[in-house]
Automatic annotation (TrEMBL):
The lineage of its organism: Archaea, Methanobacteriati, Methanobacteriota, Stenosarchaea group, Halobacteria. One of its GO terms (molecular function) is GTP binding. It comes from the Archaea. Belongs to the archaeal-type GTP cyclohydrolase family. Its EC number is 3.5.4.29. This is GTP cyclohydrolase III.
């Protein structure tokens, strides 16, 4: 890993207040009603964060997270107000700033854990932020690696039982996310179809090579990845999507890192 201590990435963890008890009060609620509420909450979160150039991930739905570089405290408060006004639940938010994404999300988690349990009836609409030592005037910097299974349509969707196609994508996602978390302090999340988005520190090309190789060795699944960098997740992610298009057009497996390496 070659992340710079003077670069900072910001992640926000959104947790529904006292959601467990709510799902069974006054008696267990219909599952599809809960699914609908969770999907609506996530859609609204993705919109809110996306309009401000962040990237949102659905996490476990009761815990969602986002890359929020450039989004200030006041704006987080506005999001909490919006949830309260539009839905039957409220949310607490932890915000973490650090030189790596996993560290930032860890800090955000600690902020919420410090003010009471997710199931605590007295914890409501907390907003707590913390920053690790990232030096003076750190640069807002996000690296997005957009991974995609090579020819998922031909090898899985059009060929295999949907149960097995699903399991294959989940297996590849788990190997990828675990490897990136353990080796590169990154946070990776499934975003749909055969796509996984990883938020990483500044990594060199060899790191992505080894990552793709690891997933191939452990699961037999071939990945391609486009990488982008920017001051916001959208800026980095957009670059990553264009780089991934080059992979699809030319057959390269890793795209965008040459430019990244030159920038470092
Ligand atoms: N969230 C998200 N999903 C995508 C994106 N691109 C594709 N998908 C999903 O991935 C599925 C497969 O599309 P592709 O990845 O283009 O298809 P493929 O068969 O793997 O083909 P190649 O990528 O060219 O190897 C689509 O049906 C979408 O569900 C993206 O940028 N974001």
């Amino acid at each position: 890993m070659n992340s710079s201590a003077n670069e900072v990435v910001q992640l926000s963890l959104v947790q529904i207040d006292e959601y467990g008890p709510w799902t069974v009060t006054p008696e267990p609620r219909r599952e599809t009603d809960l699914q609908s509420l969770q999907a609506t909450l996530y859609a609204d979160f993705a919109d809110f964060v996306g309009e401000r150039d962040g990237y949102a991930f659905y996490g476990r739905f009761d815990n969602m997270f986002a890359v929020t570089n450039g989004i200030d405290t006041e704006t987080h408060t506005r999001y909490q107000r919006r949830v309260r006004n539009r839905s039957p639940v409220t949310v607490s938010i932890g915000v973490g700033r650090a030189s790596t994404p996993a560290e930032a999300l860890g800090l955000a988690s600690e902020q919420l854990q410090a003010v009471g349990s997710a199931q605590d009836a007295t914890r409501r609409e907390v907003l707590a932020a913390a920053s690790n030592d990232v030096g003076e005037s750190p640069t807002e910097r996000v690296t997005v690696a957009h991974f995609d299974i090579v020819d998922a349509t031909g090898s899985l969707t059009d060929r295999r039982n949907a149960v097995d196609a699903d399991l294959a994508v989940k297996r590849a996602t788990l190997e990828l996310a675990t490897y990136l978390r353990e080796h590169h302090d990154s946070v990776a999340h499934f975003v749909g179809g055969d796509n996984v988005i990883a938020v990483c520190p500044s990594l060199d090309p060899a790191a992505f090579d080894a990552t793709v190789e690891h997933v191939r060795e452990t699961t037999g699944i071939d990945l391609q990845v486009g990488i982008g960098r920017g001051a916001t997740a959208h800026e980095a992610g957009d670059e990553a999507k264009h780089a991934l298009e080059v992979c699809r057009e030319t057959g390269t497996r890793i795209q965008g890192v040459d430019g990244l390496a030159a920038d470092d």
